[in-house]
Amino acid sequence: MTAPAVPQRLAAPAPGWTDTVDVVVIGSGIAGLTAALRLREFGSVLVVTKDVVASGSTQWAQGGIAAALGPGDSPEDHLQDTLVAGAGLSDPAAVRALVTEGPDAVRDLIDLGAVFDKLADGDLSLTREGGHHRNRIAHAGGDATGAEIERALVAAVKRADDIRIIEHALVLDLLRSADGAVAGVTLHVMGEGQLDGVGAIRSRAVVLASGGLGQLYAATTNPSVSTGDGMALALRAGAKVRDLEFIQFHPTVLWLGKGAKGQQPLVSEAVRGEGAFLVDHDGNRFMQGQHELADLAPRDIVAKAIMRQMLATGKDHMLLDARHFGDEKWRVRFPTILASCRSHGIDPVRELIPVAPACHYSSGGVWTDLHGQTSVPGLYACGEVACTGVHGANRLASNSLLEGLVFARRIAAALGDDLPDLREPADDGRVPGLVDADVVPELQRVMTVGAGVIRSATGLADAGDRLAELIRQPAAEPGTPSWEATNLATVASALVAAATAREESRGSHWREDHPDRDDAQWSGNLDLTLPGDGTTARPATAFVALKEASEGK
């Protein structure tokens, strides 16, 4: 199977205005704002964000940020837990950078103004989540860690009058020089920003920190802005993406009924870290015996166990029991989740919480080296849009905020040492196109059924065929809905190609027709690019690249 052809460039009006800065940062979560705050020391910085600056996935992070900050813990322990969760595909050097630089990065975040929960003696209050053998999750506001981190970063950026921000802007494509290097970006400001319409920003470097792709699926924990824009932009620019098949489905997302679509409320893993447990509809604790950590097993293990139990019992959700917490613990430790549950008619103090897996996080993304450099000169990436090598086949809980923090700092250090010269944009001849925005609901259904938690050759082939039909439906005119639809279609086609190629089950990639992990054939990473004809790599081609990676060539 060949993945369906996708546009090589987004059709859009010619830029009506231009500007020039040293670095464009795309995204305003923990990764983007950390990069901006550090890059301002080396040149002019422009942050472009799709909504208001405080929007995006960071603010929704409940559980916390993982780092070896407590007594008895160590970066080596954190490294081992991360490598185990990554199921053989994490880059040990990237993980070591994460865990050794992480504690100081968190302390700097505290110095910046982020207020984390503390014990009576003043030490950080640390909890545990799935896959961790130590209490190392720092949290804020009980279960509002992401919101507190985002608050502190936004405040710091707004104090920095040398960082410019354009809100309500969708970045369309990279401007490239004649030799394929970054020369800037084109973007569309959606009526409420500082400028209007399509424009061009020339820059010496671009930092992608645009978040994930959760809107590929009918149900996700991601906000509506998570339409894979950064990954699609990078693919169209010729960048390499890695391990896109590893989509993490969070096991405990509040189940709102069969017809629920879009962003769904998360029930943080920290709830299980504090002693909640999963049961089926007969009250059986089905995680017992599944893993040494039972209900605190890595997320892929728990999500698969829930799916198996749902299939075996014919139920469309399972149940989480945290009634023994009592009213005070719920109010103090998990106020956000408590309010969310009650707003949907569920009182977790007295009732079981209905939960089911939903798309949560992309462990793969745009490939980078240890300093955030992608395969396109001048293009850097960090946060969920990137594949730094940390997560491998399955992200360890609460490593995402830390990864965005640590690798944004690494990018700033690298660019501080060697900021590229400003290059002249050139017409690279890429063929423009657009996909009709009306296909998005069907695309989400296709991805949920064919490339969701459980996958097979037949289901993926059907998904690929249907995607090809959807992509052939052109948009009548350019605009945000059709640009987002094209980005979703681009990333969906790459994901299906990758999931088809990997004929094994590993981490968060579960093939029911290849149920076992196969280290002999699949112990390497899978890379894809978008060739000039707009198709992603055939599985056979991807397999050759994978074999070379696994043999250390």
TrEMBL record:
Q: What keywords are annotated for this sequence in UniProt? A: FAD, Flavoprotein, Oxidoreductase, Pyridine nucleotide biosynthesis
Q: From the UniProt record, list the reaction(s) this protein catalyses.
A: L-aspartate + O2 = iminosuccinate + H2O2
Its Enzyme Commission number(s) read: 1.4.3.16
| SUPFAM superfamilies the record matches | FAD/NAD(P)-binding domain, Succinate dehydrogenase/fumarate reductase flavoprotein C-terminal domain, Succinate dehydrogenase/fumarate reductase flavoprotein, catalytic domain
Which family does the record claim for this protein? Belongs to the FAD-dependent oxidoreductase 2 family. NadB subfamily.
Query: Bias category Basic and acidic residues: which stretches?
Result: 502-520
| Cofactor(s) listed in the protein's UniProt record | FAD
Superkingdom of the source species: Bacteria
Recorded metabolic or biological pathway in which this protein acts: Cofactor biosynthesis; NAD(+) biosynthesis; iminoaspartate from L-aspartate (oxidase route): step 1/1
Q: Does the UniProt entry include the keyword Oxidoreductase?
A: yes
List each copy of the FAD-dependent oxidoreductase 2 FAD-binding domain by range: 22-401
Provenance organism: Kribbella lupini
Group of enzyme by EC:
oxidoreductase
Protein name per its UniProtKB record: L-aspartate oxidase
Q: Which Gene3D superfamilies match?
A: FAD/NAD(P)-binding domain, Fumarate reductase/succinate dehydrogenase flavoprotein-like, C-terminal domain, Succinate dehydrogenase/fumarate reductase flavoprotein, catalytic domain
Compartments in which it is found: Cytoplasm
